[in-house]
Design brief:
124 residues; mainly beta; seven-stranded mixed sheet; four-stranded antiparallel sheet; 0% helix; 49% strand; globular
Length: 124
């Protein structure tokens, strides 16, 4: 089992940058497919980015491709989400998730563990 804790959210102006971190305890993050999802007020949770279990392949939602980068810091057992050129529509609670069953996934139902989320607010 793994426990996930997100950090790094906050208020930023449009065009700015933030780095979210997901700290994992219990097992190494390389043992899981890791993903970031987000949920805006009144909307369903949506996929943002993922990184493959025991690999470096990454996947992104079209809405963030070219602006966001997911990476894994094995030394510190972290998964980071670097967010650049932020837009007001990026405002959401961002969740870190881990899947033991799949090597990678864009589907929230295929993730087994979730953090509690961190709020990102982008002002126009």
């Amino acid at each position: 089992q793994v426990q996930l804790v997100e950090s790094g959210g906050g208020l930023v102006q449009a065009g700015g940058s933030l780095r979210l971190s997901c700290a994992a305890s219990g097992r190494t993050v390389s043992s899981y497919a890791m993903g970031w999802f987000r949920q805006a007020p009144g909307k369903e949770r949506e996929f943002v980015a993922s990184i493959m279990r025991n690999g470096d392949d990454t996947y992104y939602a079209d809405s963030v491709k070219g602006r966001f980068t997911i990476s894994r810091d094995n030394a510190n057992n972290l998964v980071n989400l670097h967010m650049n050129s932020l837009k007001p529509e990026d405002t959401a609670v961002y969740y870190c998730a881990a899947s033991i069953r799949y090597r990678t996934s864009v589907y929230s139902g295929q993730y087994d563990y979730w953090g509690e989320g961190t709020l990102v607010t982008v002002s126009s």
